[in-house]
Every structure is written in structure tokens, then in C-alpha cells.
Amino acid sequence: MKIIGIDPGSHRVGYAVLSFPEGNRSKPTLLDYGTIEVPPKTPSPENLLQIKSELDSILDTFTPEVAAVEELFFVQNTTTGMRVSESRGVILLSLGEKKIPVVQMTATQIKKGISTKGNATKKEVRSAIQMILGFKDLEGHDDSWDAIACAFVGRSLVQGLGQLKIKSSKT
């Protein structure tokens, strides 16, 4: 199974594509990861069009079967929150157009799923990815590392949902 993890942002979107061999949940292959970066002062809708174009290209290249997208976390700056929600909407639209099922998780769920601590720091998330998944030479922005964690934790949710459907269909 191939899954894309996405960490939304208004001008920087982290992404990671993991491939999970059949029957081996804990040791995926990291096919690609990085960030879609839009210059900071790029106004809407130009920033959204660039995010959509680059994400569509990634989706076409890797054809993931499932997407794991981090839910929006509102901080005190509602303007920033609104811009991130616009970006998230474009991300969900791209996934919907390509008929890629989506699981959504909070940042706390992702941190807890990769490091067992819901309040893990960026450094702790990176260390957990390196230790658990064996991805030693992580470069780039922490948004892309968050996307790796999102994809990994999203895989567990997808598998759990699959088992739930199987179990409920037998009752």
C-alpha cells in the first residue's frame, strides 16, 4: 500500500509518500518527501494554484492509494488559521478529484502515534522517525518530517478501519 502524508500550510506544505510491503506495517519504504514551497508574500489564489499544481504532480507520479492529512490546528492568529484552511481545502479537493480516500488526524494524534507523546517536539518526532522507521538522513524542513509521521500513523488508522469493516461485515 502506498500512502501520502500531508502537513498543510498556507505557503509550505509538507508531503511524504510511504510504501508499506504486504504484511509488514512497521518498515515502510520512503518513496519521496519534501515541501511544496510558495514564496511567503504570494497572494491568494496564486499560492493555492501553485500548491494544487505541485500536489497534483506528486499524486500523478506516485499514485497513492490513501492519504493522511493533518487536521487544522487553530492558534491565536485566526488570519493564519484561515489561510491554512484554504490550503487544506485545496489539498482535499485534489485528493477528492483523484478519488484518493483520506484519513484525518490532529497533530496530537500524529505525535502520539509516532513518539507516544502527544506533546512531542519537532526534534522528538524526527528522532522517533529515525529510530522506528530507520530513515536516518532526513533533510529539509520539519514540515516534511511531520508528513512522514502523518503517513505512518495514517497507515495504522487505515488498517484499523479495514479490520473494523471486515469485522462488522461478518456480524
Compile the SSE list and pairings.
Layout: E1 2-7, E2 12-19, E3 29-37, H1 46-62, E4 66-70, H2 78-97, E5 102-105, H3 107-115, H4 122-133, H5 142-169
Parallel strand pairs: 1-4, 4-5
Antiparallel strand pairs: 1-2, 2-3
Helix pairs in contact: 1-2, 3-5, 4-5
What does this entry look like structurally?
- The chain is of the alpha/beta class and 171 residues long.
- It is built from five helices and five strands.
- Strands 3-2-1-4-5 form a five-stranded mixed β-sheet.
- Helix 1 runs parallel beside helix 2 and helix 3 packs across helix 5.
- The radius of gyration is 16 Å and the shape is globular.
- The two termini are 27 Å apart.
- The C terminus is likely disordered.
From the structure above, extract its key features:
disordered C terminus, globular, 5 helices, five-stranded mixed β-sheet
Percent strand equals: 15-25%
Q: Nearest-angstrom radius of gyration?
A: 16 Å
Strand arrangement within the widest β-sheet reads 3-2-1-4-5
Give the helices and strands as they follow along the chain. Answer: EEEHEHEHHH
Q: Which percent range fits the helix content?
A: 40-55%
Quickly describe the structure.
This protein is of the alpha/beta class and 171 residues long.
